[in-house]
């Protein structure tokens, strides 16, 4: 199996875990007619899922303690329609430390788009303030929608369960 296929299998396993995490989290904020569902899953759990899905990519080597995947799904409140044309940039601000800003990359699974990227969420640095700048390409030159929420790492996440 070539390296591309290894990475593709790992990404598929990762997205499966991520989609489940968002669906199960029940965490959402509504801003300007957009429902933002979000979830944060330990990277180690996703690496184990990749291994259990027979991906030969050593995903567990890519991550370190405290590494988590932030994933969001976006829907229009009025119609319930998923939003797949957004550019999402997340800023994670740990208490008393410098913020980290990264784009959330679109992930397509079963014709459903979510957006995600890896961040460090050390339990000792929480709570975290997360700010999402959401720009829709179909909305023209409008100002980005800003969604904000707080995340507090729990002991089960820091233990990698």
Structure description:
Helices cover 23% and strands 42% of the residues. The protein has 161 residues and is an alpha+beta fold. Helix 1 packs across helix 2 (43-52). It is globular and about 40 Å long. Residues 2-13, 17-25, 53-61 and 156-161 have low confidence and may be disordered.
What's the structural blueprint in terms of helices and strands?
Elements: H1 3-25, E1 27-31, E2 34-42, H2 43-52, E3 67-76, E4 86-94, E5 100-109, E6 112-120, E7 128-136, E8 145-151, H3 155-158
Antiparallel strand pairs: 1-2, 2-3, 3-6, 4-5, 4-7, 5-6, 7-8
Helix pairs in contact: 1-2
Counting H and I runs of at least 4 residues, what is the number of helices? Answer: 3
Cα separation of the termini:
30 Å
Instruction: Write down the overall mean pLDDT.
Output: 75
> Using only CA atoms, what is the Rg?
16 Å
Share of residues in helices:
10-25%
Strand order of the largest sheet: 1-2-3-6-5-4-7-8
Order of helices and strands: HEEHEEEEEEH
Low-confidence stretches: 2-13, 17-25, 53-61, 156-161
């Amino acid at each position: 199996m070539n390296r591309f296929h290894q990475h593709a299998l790992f990404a598929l396993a990762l997205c499966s875990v991520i989609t489940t995490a968002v669906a199960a989290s029940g965490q959402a904020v509504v801003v300007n007619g957009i429902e933002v569902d979000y979830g944060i899953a330990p990277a180690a759990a996703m690496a184990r899922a990749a291994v259990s899905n027979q991906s030969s990519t050593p995903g567990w080597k890519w991550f370190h303690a405290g590494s988590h995947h932030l994933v969001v799904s976006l829907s229009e409140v009025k119609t319930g329609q998923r939003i797949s044309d957004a550019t999402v940039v997340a800023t994670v601000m740990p208490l008393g430390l410098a913020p980290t800003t990264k784009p959330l990359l679109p992930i397509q699974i079963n014709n459903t788009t979510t957006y995600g990227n890896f961040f460090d969420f050390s339990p000792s640095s929480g709570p975290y303030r997360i700010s999402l700048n959401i720009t829709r390409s179909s909305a023209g030159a409008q100002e980005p929608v800003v969604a904000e929420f707080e995340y507090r790492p729990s002991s089960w996440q820091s233990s990698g369960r």
